[in-house]
Amino acid sequence: MQLPVGEVAVNPAAEVAWYFPETREQYRVSGNLTIVDAASTDSAMQAARKRVWHNMSDPGRQQFAWPHPGLPRHLEDPTAWDCPAPGPKDPVLDTFCLVVLHVDEVEQLKLKSNERFLYRRQEAAAVPADEGAAAVTWVEEPINP
User: Fold this and answer.
1) Half-sphere exposure of 126 (CA within 13 A, CB side)
2) Most buried pick, 56, 60, 96, 144, via CB within 10 A?
3) Can you spell out the DSSP letters for 43-100?
4) What sequence ranges are listed for the domain Pyridoxamine 5'-phosphate oxidase Alr4036 family FMN-binding (predicted)?
5) Structural domain of residue 65, as residue ranges?
6) Using alpha carbons only, what angle is made at residue 110 by residues 108 and 135, rounded to the nearest 5 degrees?
């Protein structure tokens, strides 16, 4: 899947769905995306980007050194595909972005029992003792399947 980074900047809303055939459950997770690229200034997100880069396989890292995905493949330069994989300790390539989904809602559908639940994230008011940090709670609501 090619993620249009420019489109995410305009509209970060995203949804991911998983279905588990053995339990016959479906989960739909929605929220907003953050793209963490080389220019991102959030140090925690940059640290996460480096951790993911470090934990990727060599072939996974190698793909980020290839020519731009989705463009016509120029066969006149076959060496473009033979570059060595960057090592896990090598600097993160600028072409590598970390995509983070900040989850606001989770919908669970249990097909065996015909039950459906919506879980919504709610941030409580800032607590003065936490110097502005807001507590997060999740509210569960049974809904019609």
Assistant:
1) 5
2) 96
3) HHHHHHHHHHHHHS-HHHHHGGGSSPTTSPP-TT-GGGG-PPPPPTTSPPPTT--EEE
4) 7-36
5) 38-96
6) 25
Count how many domains the chain has. Answer: 2
State pLDDT tens for residues 7-33. 898 999 999 999 999 999 999 999 999
Read off the pLDDT of residues 58-100 as tens digits, 9 standing for 90 and up.
Answer: 999 999 988 887 778 776 677 888 888 899 899 999 999 999 9
Let me know whether 23 and 52 are in one domain: no
Looking at the DSSP bridge assignments, the partners of residue 19 are 26
Place of tokens 């890292």: 61
Residues 92 and 126 in one domain: no
Same domain, 119 and 143: yes
Residues 84 and 43 in one domain: yes
| Cβ count within 10 A of residue 80 | 13
∠ CA 121-126-127, rounded to 5°: 120
Q: What does pTM read for this prediction?
A: 0.77
